[in-house]
Amino acid sequence: MRPAPSVSVRVLRATFGTRLVRGSAVVVVALLGATCHSEKGTGPCVANVLAFVASPSNPTAGVAFSVTVQARDNSGNVVTCFTGNVTISLGTNPGGATLSGTTTSAAVAGVATFSNLSINKSAAGYTLSATATGGSAGSSTGFTVQPGTANKLVITFQPPVTITAGQVISPPIVVTAQDASGNTAIFSNPITLVITAGSGSPGAALTGTTTQPASSGVATFFDLKIDKSGTGYTLSAIAAGLTGTATNGFTVVAGAVDHLAFSVQPTGATAATTIAPPVQVTAQDAGNNTVSTFTGAVTVAITAGTGTAGAALTGTTTATVANGHVVNGVATFNDLKIDLAGSTYTLTATSGTVTAATSFTFNITIGTVDHFAFTVQPNGTTGGAIINNAQGGVKVTAQDAANNTVTGFTGSVTISLVTGPSATGALTGTTTATVANGRLVNGVATFNDLKIDKNGTGYRLLATATGVTAGLSNAFDIAVGPLDHLVFTAQPNNAAATATITPPVQVTAQDAGNNTVTSFTGSVTVAITAGTGTAGALLSGGASVQATASSGVATFGTLSIDKVGNNYTLTATATGATAGTSAPFNISIGAATRFAFTVQPSGATAGQNLTPPVQVAAQDAGGNTVPTFTGPVTVAITAGSGTAGALLSGGASVTVAAATSGVATFQGAQALSIDKATANPYTLTASGALTSATSAPFTITVGGLSQFAFTVQPTSTVAGAVINGAGGVQVTAQDAAGN
After folding, report:
1. Which residues lie closer than 8 Å to 719 by C-beta, 6 or more apart?
2. Which of 71, 334, 490, 598 could form a disulfide with 82 if both were Cys (CB 3.0 to 4.6 A apart)?
3. What 3-state class would DSSP assign to 478?
4. Closest Cα to residue 587, out of 644, 543, 633, 528?
5. Within 13 A of 577's CA, how many CA atoms are on the CB side?
């Protein structure tokens, strides 16, 4: 017998490749077949050895590969008559893999072919075992199963069940790129982790290096953080071209308290009304998560420099667990109020060393008018002086319940005076302020011309308007002011001419409010007011009278006026004071005491009536005609005046029997004439029951030639002798009166 051919599978495989090996095997089988056939009938067809024609050449996990097994005898010849079943299984299984595919195949001519085997786990050092009916067996050489192409991601190290917000997730999350069989793939592309949509808390952010390049198919995330607390979080792993995956669910809990935050901001409100909805301040960790375990005290206040200076925040401004205002890390302030209107307020919340919070800006608006307030109080001043003149007047402001100025108020504000036992003056000036009269502007009423006349203590002003609570000023005093004017406090009464006016006239120095300036001791002068009474009248014999004031009062006890007249007034003057004028009064006629020529005798021709007719009046001591006088009045040439021997109207005197209305008129039968021309000026004397009066001097002139008269008569003498001797006879040309 010819020796069986020797087939070196390994050598052929190495030299020619599988195809050649298989070709050789076919050849061998053919040879063996021929051999078996020549030996047919010599014994049973038994395979002593199962031989792998070639081991798998580093197959890819999960990818089908082929294996051929030969049934051989002890000499290594293919037993071509063998047609039994050959079963393939994993021998050495370093990856704990599963062999899939058709693992049992009937041999054909001693050769069993397995064309769809696959191993699901990649690893090095795998071997295959082949077994056949009758106990034959064989093993392949070792081979490596390569991982397949990456097609999915898996979380190979999950996040902890509970993590703290803002802190690094530890231990790190590990994501692996795997092939379809779950083997770690050879993959180096980036892998990204994100918070799975719809999981955890809305708006949460995953920070850190959220995209890592895979190294040998594995990406490790060392510095991930999640900012918001919440439950039911998962993270999704994604990479281009691969099926993503998600982590197991986990919870993010808040970290330690880091800061405060206004979770319900303060909104605009009316002054002194509760801010609504209630302001809420939340204790938060660094990731802005509510720290529900916080039990500290939270205090809110108006942020310095915001809103209106001096504003006050009232209500429960400190929230604690004890007072029920801090619950689960949230401080609630449900009764906050701000008293002063203003814009851009903010609140600041503090709690020990925790970082404070500042709210959004908000405005506090003015409420409706509630009351009046004196925002510029009346100051003490002097009588008759403008109150608060230097400050622009007294100011009254319409305010809401929180004392904010109600700039939209357009009502009418009236000021009145509150008097008392020591405050009895009267208020003058513009006491009503309105928009129309320009004294009410933006809710502020200005009274800039108020005066009180009388000095006193404890005055107050009251501001009122319909429907508004009245405002009462502070108490203030009105003092006596400086000298302002003079006033007749004891007026001159009617009096007879030249008679003393009684009671004594008094002039008082007063301030602008008509209060007596008791400190005044100056000189006061009184005179008849120009244009009043009777022209030319004299006051106590002169133009004026002076008196020194005592305690502000000047007394004139000896005043008199010489001329009768109606509606006299006196004027009082003093340095630095406005003059005062008295009430009008009358000066009446006194008793007749004297005669006076009220129509003086004028020059005339001798023997002719004096014209106009001479009049003699009966007068009182002031020279006023006394109309009640009806007595006789006699006039005569004043002794020693004129020409001696002259006759008045042919006699020594002329008498008017009865004066008419105090005046004797020398006319008609009582017409006056003087017969002798003037050698010296004539005067007439009027006499009777009163003191005589002498007229003004006058002259009598010679009349026209009326007659001749022998002023040296011829005397008897002897014939032929010169009559009257050397002196002779004289004939004088004379007027009718013999002048």
Report:
1. none
2. 71
3. strand
4. 528
5. 31
